[in-house]
């Protein structure tokens, strides 16, 4: 089976978050299932630089304001189609934000171009199915539905419902879609052009990245204004957990770690803790528990809860290392905590992959107190690297971490600590519980062993995706 994946980012070519990790890892996971995935990406400078031997597949004389062409190439084991449109993608900054901050003013046209090109390629290049990722690819499914030619079954995956890609209605005439597409039974969303709404309405099947999140988005509390549409399409909504590329994320071979280790030999991990303490300006003391927060400094991720619960951590004699960037006010609060508690709190504002690996491979535990979390890769990385995660019981966090309560400890099944509701008080209680377990020694070592023994790979989830794609193609052939 030939699958066309459409996405705005893909690790290791371009990455702003977990979407890129999934898009980069899933093709390799699907290959043993008999599915050959090709990924369509925008022609950002970093993507074009990775495919110097690419060949022109087709020319697009006019695409939303300028000429473009589709290149075919390979990089990092991935089969790629790249939309080379310099007027849309040859620019500095991130895929979505200009260097001075704020979205590119033409983001709607940039990702409409990605969607229109994806629909064209799906129909004319012999693909059996389409897999569109998040709002940036949502319009591809409107173009598929309303375009002429062969019908291709489609799957739309929601990575985070909070990001919806809504643009003024004045954009619609420029999209080249028929007037009937701008309707409630289409891509219109509260008077705007809704890119995510387009994916949800036009896709044959919908997935999101964990079973619990799939249930949460059907509720008014979790549906972000789209719960009614999602409930109406509930029969085709499913939750499939994300996984990790366990070759890329492997503490036994990770060259970014000062000291590599394994579940059978975790001893060298202590050297990473010492290196982490030194790197973050913490007191170099093996006899204190070290907690880490790794991620966006944003309300969703709950770093404010970490700062509010900080007294419980400090009273327990623990340390805290924070790595991330985001909202200016939260960045300032993290810096202030490090200044106020020298040697106890360390802050790195920004993102550095080597520092991130050091936190995973050296911290005793990783804090993931998200207010909502579609899946989360942070806790999977923490499990893989032997830093039992402390997570809020939401979304994919609830689906991937087994709480080390008294019964779980007795049964030997705990892999981390889970708290609810998502408040500073309950996070503080979970941290106190973790500190007590860490100081007991052997119970924490069992917890760490259980965490590292978890299968966080794509193996099970790839099988579910493959079955879904086969079912889509089979249903299309019956309808035809």
Automatic annotation (TrEMBL):
Annotated ranges, domain Glycosyl transferase family: 288-438
SUPFAM superfamilies, per the entry: UDP-Glycosyltransferase/glycogen phosphorylase (SSF53756)
Swiss-Prot/TrEMBL catalytic activity: [(1->4)-alpha-D-glucosyl](n) + ADP-alpha-D-glucose = [(1->4)-alpha-D-glucosyl](n+1) + ADP + H(+)
Alphabetic keyword roster: Glycogen biosynthesis, Glycosyltransferase, Transferase
Assigned EC number: 2.4.1.21
Top enzyme category: transferase
Occurrences of domain Starch synthase catalytic (ranges): 3-231
HAMAP family found in the cross-reference section: Glycogen_synth
Family: Belongs to the glycosyltransferase 1 family. Bacterial/plant glycogen synthase subfamily.
Record's protein name: Glycogen synthase
Organism, as annotated: Siccirubricoccus soli
Gene name per UniProt: glgA
């Amino acid at each position: 089976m030939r699958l066309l994946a459409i996405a705005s980012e893909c690790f290791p070519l371009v990455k702003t978050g977990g979407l890129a990790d999934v898009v980069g890892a899933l093709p390799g996971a699907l290959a043993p299932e008999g599915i050959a995935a090709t990924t369509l990406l925008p022609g950002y400078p970093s993507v074009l630089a990775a495919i110097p031997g690419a060949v022109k597949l087709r020319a697009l004389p006019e695409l939303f304001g300028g000429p473009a062409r589709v290149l075919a190439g390979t990089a990092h084991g991935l089969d790629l189609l790249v939309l080379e449109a310099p007027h849309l993608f040859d620019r500095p900054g991130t895929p979505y934000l200009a260097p001075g901050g704020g979205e590119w003013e033409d983001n709607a046209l940039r990702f409409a171009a990605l969607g229109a090109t994806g629909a064209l390629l799906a129909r004319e290049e012999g693909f059996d199915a389409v897999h569109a990722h998040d709002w940036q690819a949502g319009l591809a499914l409107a173009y598929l539905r309303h375009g002429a030619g062969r019908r291709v079954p489609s799957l739309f995956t929601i990575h985070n419902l909070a990001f919806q890609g809504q643009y003024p209605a004045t954009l619609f005439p420029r999209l080249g879609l028929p007037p009937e597409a701008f309707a409630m039974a289409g891509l219109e969303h509260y008077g705007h052009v809704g890119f995510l709404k387009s994916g949800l309405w036009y896709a044959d099947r919908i997935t999101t990245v964990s079973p619990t999140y799939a249930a949460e988005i059907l509720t008014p509390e979790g549906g972000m204004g789209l719960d009614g549409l999602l409930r109406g399409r509930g029969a085709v909504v499913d939750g499939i957990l994300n996984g990790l590329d366990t070759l890329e994320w492997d503490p036994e071979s990770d060259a970014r770690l000062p000291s590599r280790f394994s579940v059978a030999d975790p001893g060298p991990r202590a050297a990473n803790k010492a290196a982490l303490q030194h790197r973050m300006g913490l007191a170099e003391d093996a006899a204190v528990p070290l907690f880490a927060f790794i991620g966006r400094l944003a309300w969703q991720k709950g770093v404010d809860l970490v700062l509010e619960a900080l007294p419980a951590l400090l009273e327990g004699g623990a340390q805290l290392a924070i790595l991330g960037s985001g909202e200016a006010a939260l960045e300032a609060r993290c810096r202030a905590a490090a200044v106020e508690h020298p040697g106890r709190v360390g802050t790195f504002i920004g993102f550095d992959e080597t520092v991130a690996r050091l936190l995973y491979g050296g911290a005793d535990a990783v804090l993931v107190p998200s207010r909502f979390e579609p899946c989360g890769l942070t806790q999977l990385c923490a499990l893989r690297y032997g830093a039992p995660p402390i997570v809020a019981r939401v979304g994919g966090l609830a689906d991937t971490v087994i709480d080390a309560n008294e019964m779980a400890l007795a049964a030997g099944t705990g892999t981390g600590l889970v708290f609810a509701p998502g408040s500073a008080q309950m996070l503080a209680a979970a941290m106190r519980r973790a500190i007590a377990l860490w100081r007991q020694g052997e119970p924490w070592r069992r917890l760490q062993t259980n965490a590292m023994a978890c299968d966080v790979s794509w193996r099970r989830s790839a099988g579910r995706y493959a079955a879904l794609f086969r079912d889509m193609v089979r249903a299309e052939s019956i309808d035809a």
